[in-house]
Amino acid sequence: MQREAAAVRAEWLGHLLSTAPADRPAAEAAISELYLLIGLAPPRFHWVPSPLAALETVPPGIRPSPYESADRLSDWPLPKRFRRLVSGLSVQLDTQVMQRSRTLDPMIRQLIRMPVADSVRSTVRLALWSEYERFERSDSWHAALCPSWSAHYDAVRRMSGVVFTPEQDRLLGLWATQARSCAWWLPREDVCVVSERPVELHTEVWGDERQVRLHRPDGPALRYADGWDAYAWHGTKVPAWVVEDPSVERIEREANVEVRRCAIEHIGWGGYIDRAGLRLVAAAPDPGNPGSELRLYDLREQTRVLLAVNGSVERDGHRRRYGLAVPGVFTDPVAAAGWTYGLSAEQYSRLVRRT
Predict the structure, then answer these.
(1) What is the pTM of this model?
(2) Taking the chain, what is the end-to-end CA distance rounded to the nearest angstrom?
């Protein structure tokens, strides 16, 4: 069962990560059928190169109502109607699955739905949230479009043995088709704006269930045909300079702690310490990680950095070196390490092994 779940998850992650051109005929046919299911005639379609363009585009000939703005997307009439359509189906299917097996649904959520949803949040949605702040407040429509929903019920259909009605099959098939065929779409009564897929998408596996997140060390991790792109370092969206030209001077000027951390990691903590000329305060064996050393450096006024080695092995077999900012009052690296765990130096020294 877990092997089958892994196969379904991999299939849907493949759809999420696709950089192939959208299948426009399939997407338009599925969306047109969804319009019919809520009692409307099929719309005309207006294609755009990216989800950001979809949020910002008013199609020709349309005069939007005041509530049809990007920061009120979830209040638009049609997204509400489509959400009610799929929510009703979700309740029906969840009931049918629970009647057959109370263990299957939680397993599908853990092994398929949540990893796909996590991967969506760590890829395109990550880029949109930081690029277009109002998007986060209109997230319920895009949550409905998230392929994790389609992946979940595709797995239910394939793994549960539950027999769906023709109406349930039809709606599931239409929703899955649009998820497989294009990026996101924004429906109005007469016109539907639909986004193409990215032309570049670079990710890394980061979770136990093979979740993915944006990461690329030598260029934009995400790029669309209209030029919209996003740089990311191990799942954190960063300015382009962090990836293309990190420097001690830019790091010192950067106010965002996470961006600074990413830039330093790109340079490497050893290289950054050398280039920045940080003064070594003290060094000591790491009692929580035998065979490794803790090194404490002056960073800036009233702040020091503790350089340590990760207790867990990374996927590539190496142990990552990382730095942690600690108060400038610390002169003992062991006490500083204990502080990061909420422990005293003595308590930290008694750890069998930290992670």
Answers:
(1) 0.87
(2) 31
